[in-house]
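Researcher: Next entry: polyadenylate-binding protein 1 (Encephalitozoon cuniculi).
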Amino acid sequence: MVVVNDEKLLRIMEEMLTLKRSELRRLEAAYKGVIEYDKWVVPKEGIKGSRFDSTLLNKVYIGNIVAPRDSVQDLLSVFGPVSVTCIGNKECAFADFDNPHAAYLCMREIDGMVFEGRALKVGRTSTFPSEIPKELRPPDESIVYISNIDLNIEEEQLEDIFKKMGEIKGVRLVYESSFMHKGYGYVQFSRCIDAKKALGYSNKISFCGRRMRIGPSVVKMELPERSYFAIPREVFEIKKRIESAIFGTGKMVVLRNLIGVDDADDDFDQEMENEMKKYGDVVKFGVSKEGEVVVYCLYSTEDEAKHSFSILNGRFFGGRRIRAEMSWGEFPL
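Model: Predicted structure:
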């Protein structure tokens, strides 16, 4: 055992020990920051003077995949605009998304998914930073990221969908340098608890034939400025009145590709009627079995019909994908 009596030397040793402990705590915090990337990430803004490349947050590695590039592109594009590079001899692919929210949502939803007969292994690329800079800030948990949005949908229509989950502060679609948006946007709720509720509806809300993906925002951000390409609410209301005058009110939902004619018995009819009643007040219900099985359901309001359509369109039923449509015609049965 060594005994040190020199007070100056003791003080120097204590200072060195304090510095070493501080360095270890800093490294531990940086390590935890990387491990807990789903909650803590680096903002694109505020990293001035740093050599950190924020675009690294947009990149994803996909292993155990052997498929044509177009097929991989189709698989990933539901999360947002993406550039795909496939390396066939390595049985892997690299995806470079438009934003970090899309990259995180992709990892969360397809890791372990069976694609072309193989279970995908999805994660960060080897270039992902080993240490997160000091400019780290927590993401705003009241903002959710929405992708796979039909190009004909406007911000007001998105608001109509998500306001049923809670009070909304704002909705923004991200536009190209044209009148077409990029197929993704953001919804900010007044309460974080409502935003978390919305996350549970990813791949469950279908609108205009597309199932929207919903994920958390993973960088500190504010809603983008409203694009001058976006339709103002006053113009959107006029647009809705014109469409209503031309097409009338659509209260009927029509379902196809459900089951073969030979398999459609009375039990099937009753099962479908009970299912349709889950989404609203059914005024008339009927099943046509001439040539193909077609289900017709007339609701009391257009909102009920839209709700039924959004849930059933694209859903699998007995191994088949349901084709739903809204009709403004008279009940045919």
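Model: Note for the record: The chain has four domains: 1-35, 54-123, 143-236, 248-327.
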